[in-house]
Amino acid sequence: MKVLSLHSLGHDSGVSYFEDGRLVYSMETERLTRWKHDHRIALAVRHCLAQPQVDADGIDLVAVSSPVRESVLRIPDLNRAMAAVNGGAPHYRTTCDLLGRTVDCVIVTHEVSHAALALQYAGHPDGCLVLTNEGRGQISHSSLFQYAEGRLEWVETEPLPWYGTGFGWSAFGYLFGFGKGPSVAGKVMALGGYGQPSTAVRELLEGIDDRILSDRAMAERVGAELLARPGFVQDFEQRADCIATLQQMFTESVHAALAKHIDAAGRDDVPLALGGGCALNVVANAHLRKRFDRDIAIPPACGDAGHSLGAGVYALRFLYGLPVEPFGVYLNGEAETEDEIRETIMAAALNPLPYEPAAAARVLAGGGVVAMVGGPSESGPRALGNRSLLGSPDVAGMRKRLSERLKEREWFRPLGAVMRTEVFQELFPGAPPSPYMLFNYDVPEGLIPEARHVDGTSRLQTVGREQNPRLHHLLEEFERMSGTPALINTSLNARGRAIAHRAHDALMDFRERDVDLFVLGNLMAYNGGRARPPRK
């Protein structure tokens, strides 16, 4: 069976293609256009259908998460479909027009798509409890699902108060002047590390009516009142305390919602999975994993960028009873050929050389910065070695160089780090790994200082040889030369751009900036006079 699945309307649009239960191709629109959170799905659809491994004429089913962009998929009964979805139906079966022919179509409700993807990464354990949590879904901000006896059941809608959803993060981001974009929540969360939870702030936030989730006029009025309140958020310290309090309340409310259903299940080993953009909250994730004393499954594309995957998984597994092969994280597009990369390097007036891990490690051990592109791109917002900027966490000023100067991010935002799984197990015995950089860890003072946040934690990625052999090998070489057990790892994108997809994107963003070495597929290029090849 051949399924084309889409997230067609809203930010982070994308398309995926499944054949006989196997993910064949996937592409997030923003990787093609470099426009962050791009909604122009038609570009991604045309790109996907043009790929040689995609049988555009043989597609049996189109699966699309709600809401639906009518101009891309002409659905004859769309109004009836959306009425069903808005009424709580997990899906609606219909037809659509694709490439001039009528194709079977299923509209998968937004929250259900999130839940199906989280369950896929969990491995479909019986009894699994899935919480989807975001700024705004189709019919809810948060929903609870349970997977039992092969069925995905919607258990509860809106189990969380307003401060337990993405609404709170977005609202304070707007109040603090960060705008309204999907990236705002991540910026706001970083402030919490600089503050302390406040009883007075908690009482104030707990007193706000949950109706602000649906009453825009009330939300605007409450926001204005908070900004005008003396001594509340007039300076950085007060804002940091506010966000530290919000983080504490958010984490506690999510824990309570899950604990309630775990208690009702009458068993202590209920498997847990998280979906929706709020599953990117590494502080809450780590707390939940510790409190429940079990691992928690979270897709790397837990936000809306994962909808094209989730809709396809749901259709195949829950409508047609077909198993879907596991897929990891490196699945956006395909690797460029060596000839294509060589031409790109030469067009940038650089000298292409065969990639040597030891040479790249020497640059890093000497305090340099490496931009790395290779293979398919990561799914979701985290750079995990295939589209990364790398630097030594032991070199003073490296955080400032990477985050503030190269990427032009706000000064208070932290950076994550990547380390080999076997090294992680030695440094953090008994701690579960984090292959998708979705948990934070308490890091001893003096260990990887430039990747350690002000609160003493770091968002870590753990990588095994089988997961990313090239990155694992580079880490081995770097450790051997420097004695440092990790590298700073941040996404390969300049300010205002989506993560680089091609070698050309990396060079366009950083050719004229303070990057010492580009590692592009099986080639590398020193960046002008910033760093030169070692003499032989």
From TrEMBL:
<dbReference type="InterPro" id="IPR051338">
    <property type="entry name" value="NodU/CmcH_Carbamoyltrnsfr"/>
</dbReference>
<dbReference type="Pfam" id="PF16861">
    <property type="entry name" value="Carbam_trans_C"/>
</dbReference>
<dbReference type="Pfam" id="PF02543">
    <property type="entry name" value="Carbam_trans_N"/>
</dbReference>
<feature type="domain" description="Carbamoyltransferase C-terminal">
    <location>
        <begin position="361"/>
        <end position="524"/>
    </location>
</feature>
<protein>
    <submittedName>
        <fullName>Carbamoyltransferase C-terminal domain-containing protein</fullName>
    </submittedName>
</protein>
<dbReference type="InterPro" id="IPR043129">
    <property type="entry name" value="ATPase_NBD"/>
</dbReference>
<feature type="domain" description="Carbamoyltransferase">
    <location>
        <begin position="104"/>
        <end position="312"/>
    </location>
</feature>
<dbReference type="InterPro" id="IPR038152">
    <property type="entry name" value="Carbam_trans_C_sf"/>
</dbReference>
<feature type="domain" description="Carbamoyltransferase">
    <location>
        <begin position="4"/>
        <end position="62"/>
    </location>
</feature>
<comment type="similarity">
    <text>Belongs to the NodU/CmcH family.</text>
</comment>
<dbReference type="InterPro" id="IPR003696">
    <property type="entry name" value="Carbtransf_dom"/>
</dbReference>
<dbReference type="InterPro" id="IPR031730">
    <property type="entry name" value="Carbam_trans_C"/>
</dbReference>
